[in-house]
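Why does residue order matter? Because the sequence determines the fold. Keep that principle in mind as you read this record.
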Amino acid sequence: MNSQIIVLASTSIYRKQLLSTLQIPFEIAAPDVDETPLQGESAAQTSLRLSRLKAEVIGQQYPDALIIGSDQVALLEGKQLGKPLTHDNAVLQLRAMRGKTIDFYTALTLFNSRTGNSQSELATTKVTFRNSSDDEIERYLRKEQPYHCAGSAKCEGLGIALISKIEGDDPNALIGLPLIILVDMLNKQGVAIL
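Structure:
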């Protein structure tokens, strides 16, 4: 059994809640990284790079730990969508996405700061949005205020009313932390979940 502490390199309450379902002890640390996509970088590349960067940055603070880094980028017609952060940006995102299928790329990195080894994988989820009216979008945003979610809709909450279809291998990936992949990664590091 691995004796290293586990650190979630994220202050996301959603990732914290998901990781808590595995019933393993962990700490939380806030990675200070610039999440701006690089020139010519695909959405998948952005999310993988940022998940690695977040884990490695926190690894400098925890030299003997397993660091979990994750990042999510939504892609709409070739344009990367991040967190809207404001009501007006969320309105624009949801209007642009209505009636369309969006790819959500959720990257996961498990970095062993003791050995310097890391594992990274990408989970892709396709989300098809309903053709919601401006009034429906406005009512949704006023009720849930999902301004820190890529794509401006929380599938685990009321945002499901804006969605007509979700396709992917891990329902947790869309919320922000692909637990199926994480369990495999942790097992490879000697962390038994059960």
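The longest strand covers residues 65-76.
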